[in-house]
Amino acid sequence: MKRFFKNNLNKILVIIIYILMFYVVGELLIKIFEDKIIDENSMIGFTVLNNAVIYITLIISCVVLLKKEIITDFKVLEKKDAVKVFLTCLGGVGLVYAGNFVGSIITQILGGTGDSANQQALEMIMFSKYGFIMIIFIVIIGPITEELIFRKALHDVFRHFKMPSGVILLISSILFGLIHVISAGDFVQVFPYIFMGLTLGHLEIKNENIYPSIFVHIFINGLSTAMIFYMDKFQDILPV
């Protein structure tokens, strides 16, 4: 057990900080500001503030506590063939969208309709005056943080117990999916997130490197964000 904590203490700490930020600090902020949330604008402002506190704390914690792993993986990445890394990431993007399609079908079969509450809330904020700030969290800080926690820290902790890669992948993907739907309780929407987690986790396990999954996650979130804005523009000019 001493060896376990010696080798994984920093990774355990970032996981604990992640849980505390979302389920303790996040709830505490709600209690503090609940009297000031009186309309949609104040709700949006509070949500952005909440995300800022949580994700800035998390990204700093990850960089400080996982500095060794981040640098090691980057040095390994530099030695890899750039074309192979690009093709690996491109294949990952395709798998994420394929998984999202399958996950959406499962969701519909189980009676789910439309986007998850999490997705709807993010879209509402993106079209507000705080949109640019939220986009930074969605496209850059969020993906980096989630990959370092779910695909680096969590995978490495499980690897210590010599768990099969398939089991590690499944557990981390289910946890990744649940974290995106648990606050709203719309669990039927979990499947697209689980399939995304499976692809991102597979990239980390196959490459033994966190950067391919980070690149794919950033690209997916960036492309999805751009499509939301452009679809809104198209709706303005297309005949109804």
Characterise the protein shown here:
The chain is mainly α and 240 residues long. It contains nine helices and no strands. The protein has helices at 2-33, 40-65, 67-79, 82-109, 117-126, 131-160, 165-181, 190-207, 211-237. The longest helix is centred in the N-terminal third of the chain and has 32 residues, at 2-33.
Task: Write a concise synopsis of the structure shown.
This protein has 240 residues and is mainly α. It has helices at 2-33, 40-65, 67-79, 82-109, 117-126, 131-160, 165-181, 190-207, 211-237. The N and C termini lie far apart (64 Å).
Protein topology:
Layout: H1 2-33, H2 40-65, H3 67-79, H4 82-109, H5 117-126, H6 131-160, H7 165-181, H8 190-207, H9 211-237
Mean pLDDT: 90
- Fraction of residues in H or I helices: over 70%
Cα-atom radius of gyration? 19 Å
**Largest sheet, described in full?**
none
Distance between the termini: 64 Å
**Shape designation:** globular
Keywords:
240 residues; mainly alpha; disordered C terminus
